[in-house]
Every structure is written in structure tokens, then in C-alpha cells.
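Incident log, entry 3
Record: N-acetyl-gamma-glutamyl-phosphate reductase (338 residues)
Problem: checksum mismatch between cached and fresh output.
Input:
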Amino acid sequence: MRGYKKPTVSVIGASGYSGAELTKILLRHPSVKLEKLYAHTQAGKKVQDVYPFLDTDAVFESYGGEKDTDIYFLALPHGEASSIVPKLADAGKLVIDLSGDFRLKNPEEHLKYYLKSKDPDAVLTYAMPELFHDEIQQAKAVSNPGCYATSIILGIAPLVKKPLNSALVKSINCSAISGISGAGRSSKVELSFSEMSGNIRAYKVGKHQHTPEILQALDTDTVEPRFDFLFTPMIAPLVRGIYAVLNIQLDKHLPVSQIEKHFKEFYRSAPFVRVRPTMPEIQHVAYTNYCDIHIAESTDNGSAVIVTAIDNLVKGAAGQAVQNMNILLGYDETLGLL
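Fresh output:
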């Protein structure tokens, strides 16, 4: 359109894996203009010297409180966004925060799972497009879901948010495997090639910080949960991807065909959720913003197994963040992501 001025976008924390993925998507986005890439530890370096695959002449800069672009993505370590987001929001900027600083409504849960205290009012709209699209449209600053949380919530929500044949969820036992990039770009001995090659291990069993986020999105909490929930995260020698196996106990039997039909109806307006008749694989979703879901089994005693797969850096972080930006701007939510 002649005379149309594209909204400008900057990324704070652009040198991490999620920040780099954001940069890659925003560079090809047809309806925004990428302005500044802030990264304190890499300040002064050319972006291409750090990430040669990014087609830009930009140089990383240190963020000093600037508010001169229309939209800000924050891809910072937990705890660092809490002082920046309110100032940007007060200045009228659109803000998408990828950290956990503003996700949880209950400050006691935040303190327990993030080991940091927070202002009880420091909560943003939880921006999972498939569940809270209307709320996102009305917001100015949003909190992007976590990667594990995205893969698990999407695999459970239809049975909790809109029970099928009045079948109630009694318990959920979830095991999910993440690629190493989920731990960030900083060097850690336990994540080195010699430690992880041919290896897999569980960690933070029942204590992972995405646990209260998952339950909150499912209309309950860790204090007085409506159903028993156990989450076992694992790390495997993959660069990217999350593969979640959800063992759900219902109070009555539901056939696989009915559950599958129910999921398809629930996500009929969700362009990035694919309810598959076959088992998902990481390679089916890598480098995409899709979440693939398969209803694997349902037994006579009410047990059901649902499997999901996402790319942790795209649907689990940067892709979902751009999807949320599109909604905030009134664009088609798939813009720049297909």
C-alpha cells in the first residue's frame, strides 16, 4: 500500500538462541521493519559474526532504556525483564516478553519456582493464541508462554477447558524431552557434546518452573490443584524440539476417535495446531511454528495417551512471539511464519 509505514521492531536479548530465531523471522516478515538488536554481552559485534546465517549488516548494541521503536521483544534471562517491561508499556510500546517474569498470577508460586520475589501486580496477558486470542487482541503487553508449557497445554486443554461427554481429568503424568537449545546459549559442562552425546537424563522432576504456568493456563494451580499433575522434563542430544507424552486419567472411557474429533473441533480456528492421525516426530515440526498432536491410545478404564511435538525455539518461543505480535497488530496471525 502506497504511503504505508511499517511498524518498527527491536529485540532486547537478541544474541541468545531465541533472540536469533526472532531476528531470522522478523527479517523476512513483510509488514514490520526490524530496527535494533540489543545484546549486552555481544555489543559492538556484527550480528553476522555471531550468527552467519542471519542476512543483516546490523551490529549488536547495549540497551540503555531506549523507547524509539513501536514494538519490543524481550528475550532475556528470567529476572532481567521485570524492570524494563513496565517502562516500555508506560511509554505506549507494544511489548512481547519471552521470559517467565510476568506469567504467574500467584507471587508465592513465582517465588517457589523461580526463586525470585515479584510484585503481585506484575502480570501480563498470558499469550497463548489458541486459548486466549481475544485477550491478546485487547492487550498492549503480553507474556509469551514457555516452551514445555506450550507443548503440554496444547495437548491437554481441549479435555480440561471443554470436557468431552462430561469426562473429567483426574490426573496427568507428563514426560517431555527437550533439545539442548532450550537451556540457552551459555556454556555449561553438563550440556557439552561429551556429556550429552548418546545420553538422555531427567531433571527438575515435579519442580520445573513451567509447572505452575501449565496449571494456571488450565484454570487451576499448584496450591489446590483440581487434578493430580506430575511433570518429568528430560534433555536429549537434540539441538531443537520438544516431544511430550501425556498420560491422562479420565473418570470415564472416551474412544480415540471421539477424542480426536473433539481436538479437531477445539482447534478448528488454530492455524498452527495439527491434530494428526499418525505419531508426531520432531523432524515434522523442526523450524516451523506448528504443534502436532496425536491421540495415541485410550483404554477402557479411562486412561488416554496424547503425544505432542513442537520446535522449542519457534512455536515454543520466537515463532509464537511473532504470532502474538501479528495478533496485537491486527494482522493475519500466520504472517511471516509460513
